[in-house]
Amino acid sequence: MRVVLAGLSTVDLVQRVAELPSPGEKVQSQAVEVAAGGPAANAAVTVAALGGEAVLLTVLGAHPLADLARADLEAHGVRVVDALPSRVEPPPVSAVSVRDADGERTVVSHNAADVPEFPVSPLLDEVHGDCVLLDGHHPELALAVARRARELGVPVVLDAGSWKPVLTDLLPLVDVAACSAHFRAPDGVLDVPVVITTAGAGPVRYSTVDDSGSVPVPEVEAADTLGAGDVWHGAFAYGAGLPLVERIRFANEVAAERVWHAGPRAWVPAVREMRK
Q: Are the C-beta atoms of residues 106 and 123 closer than 8 Å to each other?
């Protein structure tokens, strides 16, 4: 299973705390970890953990912080194709606090707002395989990858976490829009063959031209919800070829395994076991 993922990579500084701080309050963390983050990057780690070939088209650059993210991704089996390998500015950084009692988190991130435009054509030879997953954070890259995938007949999955201007042009190229519960299209209508909506611990809803329904999420005691949606999207992309309901159920099970483990990569060994 070869999955091409195009989108955001960040450096996540994750602090585990007893309680999330109020404005002006200082708290002592129980643990701190640094890992690669971002929707596409976390999904790529998931694909690799499941035994797939994960090819991540992204921007990291040559800054020392970028080396931290790159090392984490490569250590977890992701092949990183960097569109701006000589960029000296720091990559996007996310400050994350995770509450120990229930795994709830807060995230402050700059994302890819300051990344300059870059040539996308050198990356398009990588667009082949079983599935493409986009998060829309690098708009021109997302559009170019989606167009190439459409030419080749490779199915395109969109991680639709929030509305982005590029989606006006991107959605007609998408086969599956996997949306968060907070996602809203400006006209309220998503003209996509398959629309899926995740809702945390709630059932995952889906609709197609011919059918609609929901798939329950396994009940687990949440230890860490950071990146759970990204893991869901990675597992869904890896499941390309399965019937839709079975594919959703599989992604639900993988995401549940993620939230059961505390830490940005503690879940990976358990997910590797799931493929055996």
A: no
pTM, entire model: 0.94
Is a pLDDT exceeding 90 seen at residue 106?
no
DSSP string over 245-256: HHHHHHHHHHHH
Full domain range(s) for residue 70: 2-9+37-90+113-274
In a domain, 97, yes or no: no
Asked if residue 185 belongs to a domain, the reply is yes
Pick from 253, 207, 265: which is nearest to 14 by CA? 265
In a domain, 102, yes or no: no
pLDDT for res 274: 84
Single-letter code of the amino acid located at 144: A
Give the Cβ contact number of residue 107 at 10 Å: 15
Half-sphere exposure of 219 (CA within 13 A, CB side): 0
Q: Which of 26, 27, 31 is nearest to 13 (CA)?
A: 31
- Report the distance separating Cα 46 and Cα 239, nearest Å: 11
3 state SS of 271: helix
Token reading at 49: 């953990």
